[in-house]
């Protein structure tokens, strides 16, 4: 019997969800942060979607949100021309970094010592969080807005995707561009795999994968929709993606064949990420919701409870709207 994929729906946002990010597994589990055009990024328990708190302080749409690996710090980037650093435990704003245009991307270094931002100024900046008053290191080369950017695990390089149809790799120590990957359409998402070995990029209706040791393409898969996001889980050999047609797609990495596809959202899908334990993946949509999906459908995990197959499919509890 094939069990039906039943997502957990996380309500609370009032406008499109633009970005999401998981922490690593901590002694208290793992956590999920979401960015939204309502200007109110939210923190949730990662395996259940239960609302923990909202970061209050931005005066415009929030485009990017991230957690450090320990879930002790959060960072957000917004249309109010700022990136903000937060204490993820107390919700307190620790620092605001002023930019000259919309900040679309924020990312911590693996050691949590540095914050990388990408903005519509076409600039990448690295802020030293131990010396937050000092001038950031800037990287100039993109010819259009920067959509997303991440550190490599060793912190020696940063990788950025821009609306100039390119993904670029930069050496931090020299501030030099060492690799430029060009595409026929603007990259819509950029993700470094949890082991740091694979770079996953979505553009047009393709998902393409690169080896981070030599920046050579591993493979490329065509999907029957314009894509906005993709996430790869190496240990299970699958990737998920979504975009304009409201559908979630799951693919076998080795064969490039579709495993399943299904609708759950009521708008285009803007962001997808696998959880750090690989048991679920989260999606954020134009419809203003986050949804959590099981990697292995029917497994008892988080709020998903398996029932007797004779009585019906895998069942779950739907999350309530956050308290106000």
Automatic annotation (TrEMBL):
CDD domains the UniProt entry points to: WD40
Keywords for this protein: mRNA processing, mRNA splicing, Repeat, WD repeat
One CC-aspect GO term: SMN complex
Database matches in PROSITE patterns: WD_REPEATS_1 (PS00678), WD_REPEATS_2 (PS50082), WD_REPEATS_REGION (PS50294)
InterPro entries with a match to the protein in the record: WD40/YVTN_repeat-like_dom_sf, WD40_PAC1, WD40_repeat_CS, WD40_repeat_dom_sf, WD40_rpt
Record bears the keyword Cell membrane: no
MF-aspect GO terms: RNA binding
SMART domains reported in the protein's UniProt record: WD40 (SM00320)
One Gene Ontology biological process: spliceosomal snRNP assembly
Keyword Cell membrane on entry: no
Domain of life: Eukaryota
Family statement: Belongs to the WD repeat STRAP family.
Listed name of the protein: Serine-threonine kinase receptor-associated protein
Source taxonomy: Eukaryota, Metazoa, Spiralia, Lophotrochozoa, Annelida
